[in-house]
UniProtKB/TrEMBL annotation:
The lineage of its organism: Bacteria, Pseudomonadati, Gemmatimonadota, Gemmatimonadia, Gemmatimonadales. It comes from Gemmatimonas groenlandica. It comes from the Bacteria. This is VOC family protein. Residues 12-126 form the VOC domain. SUPFAM superfamilies: Glyoxalase/Bleomycin resistance protein/Dihydroxybiphenyl dioxygenase (SSF54593). Pfam families: Glyoxalase.
Amino acid sequence: MTHTLDNVFGYRGDAMHLPVPNLTAALPFYETVLGFRVVSRGDAPLPHAILARDRVQIGLEENGGDPTQDGCAFHVRGLTALFDEFATRGLAKAPSDFGVEQRDGVAWTVCYVIAPDGLCYWFGERGIT
């Protein structure tokens, strides 16, 4: 595979309890557009699902949190190819939406995606510009 999600970091330190207002409504975006698969799902103590793709897992749950104040950072290999895949799956982002950010003295090529549920995702590839 020419592109992968290699690591994930939750903005609030926890990528396994990301708040969504409606789990059933949220899942199609993650499966169809971002290419995740549901590895488990349950209703107790709250409606929740664990999703996996490549080397990462995230968790979505109806926990009453504000999704507009949360999300994850994904370290990526093959950022352009990844977004080409996302585009074929229905995401409207172009390479012109990419930027460069400095993190600890290292340049990262990055792009942000806001999910329909309000969660924000940072996708970054180290050292490319």
